[in-house]
Amino acid sequence: MNKIKNIFLRYLLILLVALPNLFIFYLIFTPLTIYPLLVLFKLSFAKVLLSKSSFFILDEFQIDIIKACVAGSAYYLLFILNVSVPKIKFKKRIKMLLFSFAFFLILNIIRIFALALMFVSGTSSFESLHKIFWYAGATIFVVLIWFVEVKLFKIKEIPIYSDFRCLIKKGFKR
Q1: To pair with 33 at 20 to 30 A between CA atoms, which of 3, 55, 58, 148?
Q2: Domains of the chain: total
Q3: Helix, strand, coil: what percent of the chain each, to 5?
Q4: Are 14 and 83 in contact (CB under 8 A)?
Q5: What is the value of pTM for the model shown?
């Protein structure tokens, strides 16, 4: 019964964190994305302004940091992967979450900064690279981070599947 309760609580947490519309991820990670970018931009450009609506003026170019740039859904996917793995002690799970969020945050800041540099310099491949990162970049980053986590934290269980298998076994034992 404890295993079923644990599964229920973990998946309830996964659902509740998503409400409303991944708000918690954007609340936390928007400033954590914008302010390091501000520092990087100030090191790279003569004139840098940051507006309240999350866009930068770099010299005479405007760079908008929208929700998709912050990638709240990627943080949520990392959250799901980390919380849906059974048999992980609380302290280890917190370490895993912090590691995955920090890793993604760093990669995302580097991605935005590199794209901004390409945009300002007028690089011809900016549009195509921006679209590639828009459609596939965050997913590739999440998969990469998850594989690193599995190796680093010695994760043996499979997210969601291991819980499903446990529930099926419990159902047949009755």
Answers
A1: 148
A2: 1
A3: 70, 5, 20
A4: yes
A5: 0.90
In this structure, the chain runs to a length of 174
Q: Which residue carries 């010299």 as its tokens? A: 59
Query: Which token pair is 66?
Result: 């929208």
Beta strands in the chain (DSSP E): 48-50, 55-58, 61-64
Burial class of residue 168 (count of CB atoms within 10 Å of its CB; 0-12, 13-18, 19+): exposed
Residues 39-92 pLDDT 10s: 999 999 888 888 877 778 887 888 889 898 999 999 999 999 999 999 999 999
Domain range spanning residue 95?
2-173
Cross-sheet strand order for the sheet of 48-50:
48-50, 55-58, 61-64
Q: Are 58 and 47 in contact (CB under 8 A)?
A: yes
Q: Please give the backbone phi and psi of residue 62, each rounded to the nearest 5 degrees, phi first.
A: -105, 130
Contacts within 8 Å (CB) and 24+ apart, 111-119? 111/137, 111/141, 112/33, 112/37, 112/65, 112/69, 113/37, 113/40, 113/41, 116/37, 116/41, 116/56, 116/58, 116/63, 117/44, 119/61, 119/63
In this structure, what token pair is assigned to residue 81? Answer: 């992967």
Whole-angstrom CA distances from 64 to 8, 112, 160 are 40, 10, 36
